[in-house]
Design a protein that fits this description.
2 copies of one chain form a homodimer. With about 775 residues, chain A is mainly alpha-helical. The first copy, chain A, is about 65% helix and about 5% strand. The longest helix of chain A is centred in the N-terminal third of the chain and has 36 residues, at about 155-190. In chain A, about 35% of the residues are buried.
């Protein structure tokens, strides 16, 4: 058990490391050479140009203007200054709403903290149970927690009342936030300019027809069933193989550039490479000739494959993008059922062209159902039993395991020093690798489920990750202290023991966990400081993109366009970062009544993250798609899941404190919360999944009045073509160009492009 | 514990009473005087006419043709003879699918019974645990059950394998049945002739507008947002008060007729009545004059109210029936969201005119959400704590209670004989009354929830009743032997004891129930015979309608039309009878592995009910509405709930038999079952809730081709007018007339009307 002093030390360490990260960031971002790492969003938009073009050569790489170093903290107010409507214009609604999650955390927890410190802390402090116990397992922190209140005391009335107040406050804030975000989404959708997906519906599971091709079948079906609105359709080619060839060509191109750069720098010796795996073995050949020949070969192959895909009817998948004459027609088709057989002619609103996940468009219905079952079972096992394979790997990675598999290493690892390193380090590394790979594993699982847009893939992965965090980080930590101890001890038991202890655990979870909660407060405080403070500060430093950019810059970049591509702005990693925020909501809600001392730490996390991510979405991140905050219902639901968990745990805790008569009173809370969830779902969710006809009608009418001669067919002609068929601008999907001519992103600042960078100076604070 | 002999005696008694009912039915139905009680459906359709019109007068009342008595059983094959397509034409899809539930029971349980008797009975019989025990608590029947297999025996492999086989067979049958019924529904909808609800959408929560009336607002909104399809709309008046006046007038008319009849029979003395409550006190007046005056008064009142409703804008509720030019337009409007605010302009497919529940059309959105929460909580308390108020009433209804409230009765009830009757009879009567009232209570609760059609009210009440039966009849009986013992014992405990024993019960339900199941087999066998055999046989006798018809006939009937109205054909009471069938499914599935001996009794129930209800829907019932088997998804879900319960109970049972290693094997079953449920839901359910555009388009095109000059507006003009505004034919809703000109009901037999009854003979077997 940590004392107050321990916590202070830990806080100091973490604060210092966070400060170090921030100082490093403040220094690095002022160097012109790193400009493209810390302000890539402005480059992508063309508002900021390379500082290389003018000025003395040293200034190109290092910032010598020392006055700017004194103002190293200015990015913080700068990040906060941009008003929200402009932020939505600049970074999109997804990003703007994402940082509102942090703001929501502040809105919920600041009043709760004040109330908890005003009411609960005095009540707990004067409870004085622990003064009598004089036990080593209790620390000063526990004196501020509910543990200090004697069993069966009337003081619990305060805790129950506060549980009610906190529940109502949380629900009220969530309701207001849901309302605001719904309005923002509707405004955003209403103000958007013309986009192909507004007119288009994705049709899947087109039934096979013996007499007609997929294209004819689709055309006939929609001509008959939507006679007034049908405009055209685009068939989907199965171009997965072609996409792989294109990818390979790109990599070969990179190697060729690399060797050409080497040859230019050292013209005396032509670089050589080996033909085998990764250039490590095989016959040695001239590298430039070799890669030139390889590229020629693959260009031919690609042309043949391209020919095959276009001409072979088997390369056409039974899905199509069907476009309508009006947004109204598309809205009708997307929301209605076409055929009496609900497994064919499935229509849904088409994702944005750049949001389409092309690989999954062709999965038949029954296969999809089976895949979903398998993934559901796999998710269950991954969540609850992931320690088993890791334990096996760990046992292999022990000293004995290594000696068995690689006996020649025996003398080396038997050395005392090496041995201690192996023993201390190896068992942990398997777990670390697993946790690093986890988001990728979850994303792969979501892809197997057959979702057709990147945004829905992100949302589905986030749901899986949330379950994992909930079970393994939260409950794992609470029940066993360290997240994985419990499962490890299971592994040492006989099967029947496992079953019994498992049954015992599940039957008594509320009580067991209720007792354990107050004891784990210090553990979670430390966790918040490590993961939430220092971890978030590391985010802004962008160490990995920084290194990669300079490596690419040294070996691959030749033209200004290459440099453009060498930038890796990254994007908000919704699938793994949102579930992490949810953990903080959960911790805050659970401990608000039990150990209010944890709340200030959570508030600092939310405030700090808000500033940092606001800076990042303004200056760095470049989102891959824009879903119009479609993820919000998930966020809302998960906060409420956290609230219900906190209510049930409080119920379990109080029933062990001889306050069982409070059970009915506390049971009311989850019932009300679940009802509130359903109420909000009915009230707001449709704005995120459905498309009101009234709004489409307004936009259609407006457009017909302002642009009576619009040729919609020409506009939509190539919108939904697989990216590999846009042969020349292979890296930029059509909607990307769309985006650029879009008022959504052309902010007021576009005029600066010609003025500021031309003055030769660096503009570290563009906001 | 009942022995085989006890069961045989009980079976004999119940078989005899069932036989007595059937014989009474066979006798009574042959009497011409009862013809309208036992064949009302044919009268309603006008295919059968009163036998009074011709023949000798005795023959009008009593059937003297003794040969017909010898063929008293012929109704059974007659009931089975009508082929299903004709049955659907004759009685509607709802009824035809309802009796298919019994058929489904046969399809599931006949093969299961054969397999269980071939495999499990020998395995159990030779288990011979009970031979050694020689305990009085076990009977011969238990020798056939799983109780006879020793703990930890390998024989349980047979039971687990059978659990798998039964699960797969049940799912397979359910899948096939769902598919058949979906096809039947689609065929039925496709073959239906033109009906107003095909073109009409019910719009609720029309937002208030300061400048426009509801009618104008609706017209403008749909003219703008459905410009090609909107045809017209009908506003809804709040005519609940007017409907009450009309109802009262009808009752006064009945009294007038009654006194007039009395006067005609005894012209010497004019009948007199008292003006007070129910004619029991008050001043005595001439009855005919009094009621004539009363009717005049109410006719005036009604006219004034009718005037007020039509002219007062406040009498218009914010809802409307909006009709479209095509079925396609209506399908689009019903399936899409109209406004970005999902709480206004709510559209759903309009129910049939006669299916509309008019009182609920005006409830605003938030009120609805609160009401639903309250009803959910009320349902919970009704289901789990209904014994508390009944116990209070019971304690009041005891000897002491009566003596306290009505002391003057003391000498009477202190008599020994009266006392024993009171003690034996009164406590039970409160419970009996409650159980009789339960369907009405549940229906009232469903009405409060704000559903707008009678069919959905029936479905919602059935869901509540199912929960009640599941908790109180099934689990109640199993846990405590008699359904209500447990709750009674709760009432005698202190509050904290209750809580503890409640927690204990909930934590160990699977085990407790698992142990109790085999012991309750004989109880359920008796239950099946009383409720399922004799109870169903009583259904066909129609004792209550028989008595009521003859009473009405004696006092109220003057004209042929009065006689028409005196008939009470009744209808399938879906809300309470479907959950009762589900109990048999549940019992069959639970005991199929545990005590297969119960299965033959269930098979007899299903077969017997099938024949009887087939007879009833052909000859008696007159459905109030036709929902096209919209209830099937509920039936399907509840059978699967029963299946999952049976799997969990088997799991609990085996874990007490030292066969815990079977737990993972058995856990697979509920997972698969739930997945199967979701699969079926996605695959079929949309046919019951959505309206495919393709089908509507086909019907529209066909209609346009066959009837190019159809005046749809005139056709729909008065379709959705509140029944009280159809002043003259007050008892017949418009759709009723519709129905009569409908090929749906005019069967081949319509030609017989003129031939057979005109011959003067009785036609007891119309089929």
């Amino acid at each position: 058990m940590a004392s107050v002093q321990d916590i202070c030390v830990s806080a100091a360490i973490n604060l210092l490391s966070a400060l170090a990260f921030l100082l490093a960031f403040a220094f690095l971002r002022l160097q012109p050479i790193n400009d493209r790492v810390y302000f890539p969003k402005w480059y992508k938009k063309g508002i900021r140009a390379s500082p290389r073009s003018s000025g003395p050569s040293v200034k190109k790489f290092v910032n010598l203007d020392f006055r700017t170093y004194l103002k190293f903290w200015t990015w913080m107010p700068a990040a906060l200054r941009m008003p929200e409507p402009e932020l939505i214009d600049h970074a999109g609604l997804d990003s703007a709403v994402y940082i509102r999650i942090y703001l929501l955390g502040l809105k919920i927890f600041v009043p709760i903290t004040i109330l908890a410190f005003a009411v609960l802390v005095p009540v707990n402090w004067t409870g004085s149970t622990l003064d009598d116990v004089k036990d080593l397992t209790f620390s000063d922190i526990d004196k501020l927690s509910i543990s200090n209140v004697p069993s069966g005391s009337l003081r619990f009335v305060a805790h129950i009342a506060m549980a009610y107040v906190f529940t109502f406050w949380t629900c009220y804030t969530l309701y207001k936030e849901y309302k605001i975000i719904t309005n923002k989404r509707l405004q955003f959708l209403a103000s958007e300019s013309r986009r192909p997906d507004q007119f288009t519906v994705l049709v899947r599971n087109v039934p096979p027809d013996p007499d007609e091709s997929v294209s004819e079948h689709v055309e006939h079906f929609f001509c008959v069933n939507h006679p007034n609105d049908y405009l055209m359709h685009q068939i989907v080619y199965n171009a997965n193989k072609l996409a792989k060839l294109v990818e390979k060509k790109k990599s070969l191109h990179n190697w060729l550039t690399y060797y050409q750069t080497r040859y230019e720098r050292n013209p005396k010796q032509r670089p050589r490479t080996k033909t085998g795996f990764c250039g490590l073995w095989g016959t040695s050949v001239d590298a430039i000739d070799y890669y030139t020949a390889e590229i020629d070969k693959i260009v031919e192959e690609e042309a043949a494959e391209r020919e095959r895909v276009i001409s072979d009817p088997k390369a056409i998948v039974p899905a199509a993008f069907v476009s309508f004459k009006s947004r109204w027609g598309a809205a009708v088709c997307a929301q209605t059922q076409q055929s009496s057989n609900p497994t064919i002619w499935l229509t849904e609103w088409a994702p944005e062209p750049r949001d389409v996940y092309w690989d999954n468009l062709a999965i038949p219905y029954v296969e999809l159902a089976v895949k979903r079952l398998l993934i559901a079972v796999a998710t269950f096992f991954l969540t609850f039993f992931f320690m088993i394979p890791i334990a096996i790997v760990q046992s292999l990675a022990s000293i004995e395991g290594i000696e068995k598999v690689l006996p020649f290493l025996k003398p080396l690892i038997e050395t005392e020093k090496v041995k201690s390193v192996v023993q201390g380090f190896l068992p942990g590394i398997a777990l670390k690798i697993f946790l690093l790979l986890l988001p990728t594993i979850l994303m792969t699982m979501s892809k197997i489920e057959g979702l057709v847009s990147l945004s829905s893939l992100d949302r589905r992965s986030a749901a899986k990750y949330h379950l994992f965090v909930l079970v393994n980080v939260f409950f794992g930590s609470i029940i066993t202290g360290a997240a994985f101890e419990q499962l490890k001890s299971f592994l040492n038991q006989s099967p029947s023991d496992i079953q019994e202890s498992f049954q015992l655990t599940t039957l008594t979870i509320p009580k067991t966990v209720g007792v354990a909660i107050p004891l784990k407060a210090t553990f979670f405080i430390t966790y918040i400081m490590v993961d939430g403070w220092a971890g978030i500060a590391a985010e802004i430093l962008r160490l990995v993109p920084l290194v990669l950019f300079h490596l690419k810059n040294a070996f691959l970049v030749k033209t200004e366009q290459d440099r453009e591509q060498a930038m890796d702005p990254g994007c908000i990693n919704f699938a793994s970062s949102e579930p992490r925020i949810q953990l903080y909501f959960l911790l805050g809600l659970v401990y608000s009544v039990v150990t209010p001392l944890i709340l200030p730490f959570i508030i600092i996390f939310f405030a700090f993250s808000y500033v940092i991510f606001r800076h990042q979405i303004i200056n760095v991140y470049d989102q891959k798609y824009e879903s119009g905050a479609a993820f919000w219902p998930d966020v809302h639901r998960r906060v409420l899941i956290g609230l219900v968990i906190s209510q049930l745990l409080l119920l379990g805790l109080l029933s062990t404190k001889n306050a069982a008569q409070s059970t009915p009173l506390l049971l009311v809370l989850p019932v009300l919360t679940i009802w509130f969830y359903r109420f909000c779902k009915e009230r707001f969710e449709s704005a995120f999944v459905k498309f009101p006809l009234q709004d489409t009608m307004v936009k259609d009418t407006l457009e017909r009045a302002t642009e009576p001669n619009l040729n919609l067919k020409a506009y939509l002609q190539d919108a939904y073509v697989h990216p590999v068929f846009k042969s020349i601008e292979i890296e930029r999907a059509p909607a990307f160009d769309e985006e650029e001519n879009n008022p959504l992103v052309s902010t007021k600042r576009s005029s600066r492009r010609s003025s500021k960078p031309a003055s030769g100076g660096v503009t570290p604070e563009p906001v």
